[in-house]
């Protein structure tokens, strides 16, 4: 483990993996914030202490809440593959500069994607950031498979 922590590429991966994980974790509180400030709840137990009239007003969807939830779901679809591919890629011995480029672009794309989702920026901003992150993950996968392909 000590040797691994001395590997510059692995340290870079760990840094950027931690950043995107924290970003993904922050989407939960963002969703809660929108639920509370927009008065939009999806579960009966969330409004159990309210009157029947209040429940009818609060048990509804709101575009901001839906957007935050979709953003979080999209994070799961992208960050989890980045974790697995990125870890294997980092362990395959890539050049530090190339690895940093991959990790930084992916992280920036995911952060921008969240802002584009939450702030409802016009397309193609969100779509481009999504595809950029996916392209980076595919690039790491291609580099990894070109080094270690074994059937």
Automatic annotation (TrEMBL):
UniProt function note: Conjugation of reduced glutathione to a wide number of exogenous and endogenous hydrophobic electrophiles.
UniProt keywords, alphabetically: Acetylation, Endoplasmic reticulum, Membrane, Mitochondrion, Mitochondrion outer membrane, Transferase, Transmembrane, Transmembrane helix
Q: Its family?
A: Belongs to the MAPEG family.
Q: Which EC number(s) does UniProt give? A: 2.5.1.18
Q: How does it assemble?
A: Homotrimer; The trimer binds only one molecule of glutathione.
Origin organism of this chain? Cyprinodon variegatus
Q: What is this protein called?
A: Microsomal glutathione S-transferase 1
User: What's the source species' lineage?
Assistant: Eukaryota, Metazoa, Chordata, Craniata, Vertebrata
**Keyword Mitochondrion carried by entry:** yes
Please state where this protein is localized. Endoplasmic reticulum membrane; Mitochondrion outer membrane
The protein's topology relative to the membrane is: Multi-pass membrane protein
Example GO molecular function term?
glutathione transferase activity
- List the Pfam families hit by this protein, alphabetically: MAPEG
GO-annotated cellular components: endoplasmic reticulum membrane; mitochondrial outer membrane
Gene3D superfamilies annotated for this entry?
A: Membrane associated eicosanoid/glutathione metabolism-like domain (1.20.120.550)
Which positions, given as ranges, span the membrane?
12-34, 76-93, 127-145
Reading the lineage from the top rank, the first entry is Eukaryota
């Amino acid at each position: 483990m000590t040797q691994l922590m001395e590997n510059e590429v692995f340290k870079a991966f760990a840094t950027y993996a931690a950043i995107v994980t924290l970003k993904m974790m922050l989407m939960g509180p963002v969703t809660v914030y929108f639920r509370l400030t927009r008065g939009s709840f999806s579960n009966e137990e969330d409004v159990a202490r309210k009157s029947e009239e209040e429940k009818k007003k609060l048990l509804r969807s709101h575009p901001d809440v839906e957007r935050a939830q979709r953003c979080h779901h999209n994070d799961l679809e992208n960050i989890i593959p980045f974790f697995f591919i990125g870890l294997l890629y980092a362990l395959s011995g890539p050049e530090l500069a190339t690895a940093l480029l991959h990790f930084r672009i992916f992280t920036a794309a995911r952060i921008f994607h969240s802002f584009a989702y939450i702030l409802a920026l016009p397309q193609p901003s969100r779509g481009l950031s999504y595809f950029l992150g996916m392209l980076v993950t595919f690039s790491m996968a291609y580099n990894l498979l070109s080094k270690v392909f074994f059937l």
